[in-house]
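Pipeline run #58 for the internal structure catalog. This entry was flagged by the ingest filter as a single-chain record with no existing model, so it goes straight to prediction. Upstream metadata was stripped on purpose; only the residue string is passed forward. Reviewer on rotation: M.T. Logging verbosity set to normal.
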Amino acid sequence: MKILQDCLFCKMGCRESVVQKLYEDEGFFCIRDIHPQSKSHFLVIPKQHIESLESVFPENGPKKNDLIGKLFEFVTFVAREERMLPEGFRTVINTGKGGGQTVFHLHVHLLGGEPLGGAFGI
């Protein structure tokens, strides 16, 4: 598993950084976002260092990759545990600097707990 020494999320995943993980399994963990954009705002993060969504699907052709399926399975698990279902939730993946990504380790914003309007704001 690839882990970067200077990556904040890698440090959290390896327990080098003190953070309260709400949910965790062998591949992913979930924390609260420190700047929530909704009543419930979580980050679901792979333990393996993957820079962005673009890194999962490289230009040189499609690859079979079950990471995204497993990632969203974990996202849905968290949404159920946090009672976001059946009402609903929003997921956001910022990719690249122009897409609003500020931590260059793939992660999913999971928002809910209240009706969400049309503005994304993340």
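catalog note: DSSP finds three helices and five strands in the chain.
catalog note: Residues 67-81 form the longest helix (15 residues).
status: ready for reviewer M.T.
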